[in-house]
């Protein structure tokens, strides 16, 4: 297949930027964007630095986690206007949100949405994702044509994804993200990434994959993923607010620039928006010229 050969030889990498999250606050790092306007501006800077996928949580004005579809719509609209071709991914994550509202913005049809396929302990809470709840979110995403990014906080979550595929609730080519370094879940230890990756290739062989290192583990996990041929890397202030022990990141764009350097160091290059969509199996952006 000539297309496969071409893609392998070019070997571009998607940079995903998680701009806000539900935990970091402006008091922790003033660069964390909170209002939709700040989020669009921060995403645009990250896009200019090479990011091609934005992972979005929205907040209320008091910075508490929000599920307001109007806020999701405002960020999506701004990103689509200012960052042509960028992949928009909504979080359906649970921290601080009413479970029934976690999928309430999917009707806006972002390109992607995160999907956790099982429960796990977090630093101070149980992150609850019952089988019925996961099936319901997966069914909604399938109906709306939203590509899931499966969040892997535990080995069993890969099997949760496999069950969704077998039940016809998800296509066989999701994007998979190993999340490492969350206290009480998977630690950021290199042998674990090999276990997760070999199990992914065994049970979801067509999946694309990446790994996210939380906090001070961000750059080392990125290096492990790049060394193993990851399709994407993940960075951003949701996961990590520092560039060194004693220095805060100035912006999401600064973290994206560090990711771009890591990609070059690994002998690969940063994907363009069109390439990013092709790698993840997404259709070209609305309004894009047909090739
Ligand atoms: Zn998130």
Overview of the structural elements:
The chain has 291 residues and is α/β, with parallel strands linked by helices. It has helices at residues 2-10, 36-48, 69-82, 131-144, 155-166, 190-203, 218-227, 252-265, 273-280; strands at residues 12-18, 53-56, 58-59, 65-66, 87-90, 112-116, 120-121, 126-127, 147-152, 175-180, 208-213, 232-235, 242-244, 247-248, 269-270. Strands 1, 2, 5, 6, 9, 10, 11, 12 and 15 form a 9-stranded parallel β-sheet that branches. The chain has a two-stranded antiparallel ribbon with strand order 3-4. Helix 2 (36-48) runs parallel beside helix 3 (69-82), helix 5 (155-166) runs parallel beside helix 6 (190-203) and helix 7 runs parallel beside helix 8. Residues 5-9 have low confidence and may be disordered. The structure holds zinc ion.
Low-confidence stretches: 5-9
List the ions, cofactors and other small molecules found in this model: zinc ion
Instruction: Please state the CA-atom Rg, rounded to the nearest Å.
Output: 17 Å
The outline comes out as globular
Mean pLDDT: 94
List the helices and strands and how they pair.
Layout lengths: L1 H9 L1 E7 L17 H13 L4 E4 L1 E2 L5 E2 L2 H14 L4 E4 L21 E5 L3 E2 L4 E2 L3 H14 L2 E6 L2 H12 L8 E6 L9 H14 L4 E6 L4 H10 L4 E4 L6 E3 L2 E2 L3 H14 L3 E2 L2 H8 L11
Parallel strand pairs: 1-2, 1-12, 1-15, 2-5, 5-6, 6-9, 9-10, 10-11
Antiparallel strand pairs: 3-4, 7-8, 13-14
The structure holds zinc ion (ZN).
């Amino acid at each position: 297949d000539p297309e496969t050969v071409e893609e392998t030889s070019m070997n571009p990498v998607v940079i995903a930027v998680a701009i806000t999250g539900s935990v970091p606050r402006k008091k922790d790092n003033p660069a964390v964007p909170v209002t939709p306007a700040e989020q669009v501006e921060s995403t645009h800077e990250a896009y200019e630095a090479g990011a091609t996928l934005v992972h979005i949580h929205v907040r209320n004005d008091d910075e508490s986690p929000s599920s307001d579809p109007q806020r999701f719509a405002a960020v999506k609209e701004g990103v689509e206007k200012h960052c042509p071709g960028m992949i928009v991914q909504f979080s359906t994550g649970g921290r601080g949100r009413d479970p029934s509202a976690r999928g309430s913005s999917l009707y806006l049809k972002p390109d992607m949405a995160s999907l956790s396929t099982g429960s796990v302990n977090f630093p101070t809470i149980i992150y609850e994702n019952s089988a019925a709840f996961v099936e319901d979110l997966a069914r909604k995403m399938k109906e709306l044509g939203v590509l899931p990014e499966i969040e892997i906080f535990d080995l069993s979550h890969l099997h949760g994804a496999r069950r969704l595929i077998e039940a016809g609730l998800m296509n066989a080519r999701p994007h998979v993200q190993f999340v490492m370094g969350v206290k009480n879940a998977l630690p950021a230890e290199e042998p674990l990434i090999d276990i997760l990756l070999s199990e992914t290739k065994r049970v979801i062989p067509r999946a694309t994959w990446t790994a996210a290192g939380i906090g001070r583990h961000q750059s080392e996990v990125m290096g492990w993923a790049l060394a193993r041929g990851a399709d994407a890397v993940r960075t951003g202030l949701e996961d990590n607010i520092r560039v060194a022990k004693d220095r805060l990141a100035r912006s999401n764009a600064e973290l994206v620039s560090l990711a771009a350097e890591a990609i070059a160091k690994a002998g690969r290059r940063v994907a363009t928006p069109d390439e990013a969509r092709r790698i993840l199996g997404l259709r070209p952006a609305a309004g894009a010229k047909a090739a």
